Amino acid sequence: MNAKTSVWFLIVLSVLAASAPCSGPADDGTAAAWPQWRGPDRDANVRGPAWPETLSAETLKPIWRVELGPSYSGPIVSDGVVFTTSTDEQKWEVVRAFDAGTGTKRWETRWEGSMQVPFFAASNGNWIRATPAFSEGRLYVAGMRDVLACLDARSGQEIWKLDFPTMHKSPLPAFGFASSPLVLDEHVYVQAGAALTKVHKATGEIVWQSLKDDGGMWGSAFSSPYFTQLGGRDQLIVQTRTRLAGVAPDDGRELWSQEIPAFRGMNILTPTVFEDAVFTSSYGGKSLLLGVELQNGGFAVREAWNHRAQGYMSTPVIIAGHAYLHLRNQRFTCLDLKTGKECWTTKPYGKYWSLVAQGERILALDERGDLLLIQANPQEFRLIDSRHISDAPTWGHLAVCGDMLYVRELNALAAYQWKASPSPNDR
Q: Which terminus in the chain has less CB density within 10 A, N or C?
């Protein structure tokens, strides 16, 4: 249910650099790329050419589209290739690689992996949810049945696979593996196997497990881990179904934690860091900012403020000290992170937005297939333009790479290309 998720940004590249989208020269393939959940730095900030002033057909042109089985996974992009997942024939989990510019299929890999979510969540579908991660020529894919697979990104060949319920006798996650993998240096971190788990990315060896829970119905995280520094200390910020915690990446020690009340444990947002504090918002709970400070060799957590606004599945973007957040009540709001003050709240839109940002611009993809271009402004909601781009649901997180946008429709993958806004003389 990671609408899971989340996926787009600050640095403007030159037009020349943008002429070869998604094929940057970095050794690990992450320059000019969208290699994981919420982009290069996992904060939904876009690298690439400045966005045009409109979303018209003149400035955002469809390039290619391929039909696929259903998926909630966001597409990821690296080395000129787009990777996406699907659940086919209610039986197979399938990973496919496509040429980023043409949509030509490079390879396809599959394994048996379907499951049924509880009846009360059936409307959310029984297909794959988590967004894969790319690192140094390898792809890390989370399958619904608590499986983590490592694939060769050039061929799709399986390098290793971990089946957590079989290995650890942990209950099958009732809602499927919804948390997106995080790759740091030589390891991949996943909320799977009823715990936060550190895995050696080359071998699949499990290094440690932390924040263990009972799995099944009330474990099985919806959120995804985030790496940052707080109080001058490297840590993984991890949201379980019931609490938010900081974990030491080297040995898995819990550095601090705070209970986050939510209806049926629906803590879904990826933790969002602002200065030395963490913002979160829960379904059936509230929005809050937790200050994390180093004191006497340990960490102290204090609540800086809270607000009645309830997030749902959309992780916010942070721009100039403000959180722009899509809410459970389908409205969009702006919160001042210094004070907790609500700056403004809009009329209702859809149930879910995937949000990406570039400078003071926000690009939002509504699950109803509407794309919105927004000017970030704490004084008022400013919708610059909007465009309906899909008649199918669009729950997968947007991916933005160079001058290309990749949209995961429920049953298709579509690519669009930015063009410079036409001058008045050209209209």
A: C
